[in-house]
Predict the structure of Quinolinate synthase.
Amino acid sequence: SEEKAQYKEEIKQLLKEKNAVLVAHYYTDPEIQALAEETGGCVADSLEMARFGNQHPADTLIVAGVKFMGETAKILTPEKTVLMPELEATCSLDLGCPIEEFSAFCDQHPDHTVVVYANTSAAVKARADWVVTSSIALEIVDMLESEGKPIIWGPDRHLGSYIEKQTGAEMLMWQGACIVHDEFKAKALRDLKVQYPDAAVLVHPESPANVVEIADAVGSTSQLIKASQEMDNETFIVATDKGIFYKMEQASPHKKFIEAPTGGNGATCRSCALCPWMAMNGLASIKAALESPVGREIHVDPVLAEKALIPLHRMLNFAA
Ligand code: 13P
Ligand code: SF4
């Protein structure tokens, strides 16, 4: 629409004026993803977002995603201004892992190496030995396991149990879940596969174990997009936030992408696989963040940030 085109032009101008760059996640609205690409920013998974922000010379990062992504950017580059379209955009994994309880859990097992998912608060990262994202969680736990280290894993129990199966590690696990991925249903997915026998099933590892079991490819958002390009199938059933369809369809316009079912009884809930916090990001709020950063700037307690930087650097150096 005309209004959107106007917003886009204004944002482009503001990005230049403020020497700012837009760092967006694959779950954000397609128009945000497209704008990030058009303006020299990035659209990426959470590890690549962290890396991009860390390396980019801009003074200001606009992180279109959820709070933990903005906090990670701020911890990695405290000298930069980190803005978010909506500071209330959080994550059920972050909410379900309060620092006091998580820290007490860790204190009970002082001999354990603490590995936390990036989808956590700065305080939880500061309590951890390692931070991982879904794209390198397996490799890092595999390495720790081969060194014989006992591991505490938090907060996503589905990603945790997937890692246990793949690596043979037995981890003490926090019982968190992603409210979006937790809704995918194995029985309905099997039924859908009967309808599309040639389809490949792509699953984000935050999904329940019985859904991950059915997958032909499991991985981070970037890894799922790559799989959709590289696999020869013409049809894909995709179990992750539907924001990802924009990139998959753009990369392979001749292929067919179908949403994995989230409802029971084989019914597909058309609006379920959509993260409510990712959906808070919009063109209007991006423009507002650039115009008046008050109330849209990420601040991290410097003491926590200094501690959280250690496991974050371990992750970035491991993946490098
Ligand atoms: P990725 O690291 O795969 O982008 O995942 C982030 C996330 O929040 C998934 O729900
Ligand atoms: Fe968190 Fe799930 Fe939303 Fe990802 S999709 S940000 S894990 S609530």
In short: The chain has a mean pLDDT of 96. The first helix runs from residue 2 to 17. The pocket of 1,3-dihydroxyacetonephosphate (ligand 1) is lined by residues 45-47, 119, 133-135, 178, 206, 220-221 (CB under 6 Å). The radius of gyration is 19 Å.
